[in-house]
Amino acid sequence: MSRAGTWAHTLCAGVIVASACSAETVRPDDRFAALRADALARAQVFRTAFRPDVLARGSAEEGEIACRFLPTDATGTTPKFDCELPTGTRVKVKYGNTPEIPAEVAASRLLAALGFGADRVVLARRVRCYGCPASPFYARRVAGWTHLEGLLRRTRNYDAYRDFEWVAIERKLEGAAIEAGGQQGWGFFELHQIDPGRGGAERADVDALRLMAAFLAHWDNKESNQRLVCLPPDEGDDSCRRPLAMLQDVGATFGPRKVDLEAWRSTPVWADVDRCRLSMKRLPHGGSTFEDVEISDRGRRLLADRLSRLSASQIETLFVDARFPGDVEQWVATFRGKVEEIAARAPCPG
Questions:
Q1: Is 76 helix (H, G, I), strand (E, B) or coil?
Q2: Which residues contact 199 (CB under 8 A, 6 or more apart)?
Q3: What's the mean pLDDT when you consider all of the chain?
Q4: pLDDT confidence of residue 121
Q5: pLDDT in tens, 246-265
Q6: What are phi and psi of 121, to 5 degrees?
Q7: Are 82 and 167 in contact (CB under 8 A)?
Q8: What is the DSSP code string of 200-253?
Q9: Cα–Cα dist 248/224, whole Å
Q10: From CA 327, how far away is CA 333, in angstroms rounded?
């Protein structure tokens, strides 16, 4: 078992619920909430330095993948299912004609290239799913509505398979998800709780994350679409020494209506240019958990520096490899225009 897995297993005893824990182990009280709050206060938002190698041509695509269907609960509205690879690794497969697939592939790669925490999401030309029903997402949903989950599990034929073409394969960033009681992820309104005095990220780093969310038009930012994760420790202990606040589900981006070039181009980064104020109130759902905030100049310059270091060919690769629709040159031009909004402006006040 990995160190992160050991940590998760330890906390399942009733302290903090991690990704591998059963819901039955949850016993929320003030102590557990305090432990989550402590992890959030000490959280970082950058996981690595600038990593443009993430955008190497062809690294966002895999050929044919075989896996075994896992009849887990159906959540959200995008067709998807969990599947187990021959190695035992669990992956999430998003399928169907949905713009969330190219959006999540591109946004996850971009976040990783800039050094933020991100899951690894790639395209697969074909997934051969053994035991999959004809429509796995809706089969799971109907089974849940009718309380026939057990029947769905018993009637799986793992000798038969179904193929799904051009799907997204999501592999979780290694580490245990930190949850207190039923509280999953984190909201943008909580980011002010990150405290550099307790080892958490500096204000500039946090502002860079907020600004990145505005750059992507990441309006679907409810708490469950972000994740507070305990990264594997460098040394053998069961404490969470390296908490990380990361964006988890970034399929509703490049829009706001998910991979919409004209909408993305016409959505400005700044709500108030002079004050360096960000707002998502005009986006769907009023921007969900994103509260209006004024960005520090250090945070602006930090993100501007990393975005500006991406070459035109790397930006083109980002969109080509994710199979974005329409004119790729226009996507690249819009991307660079938004970088200019951040980089080529007067310093932020204060």
A1: coil
A2: 42
A3: 87
A4: 96
A5: 999 999 999 998 999 999 99
A6: -120, 125
A7: no
A8: ---HHHHHHHHHHHHHHT-----GGGEEEEEPPPSSS-SS---EEEEE----S-
A9: 8
A10: 10
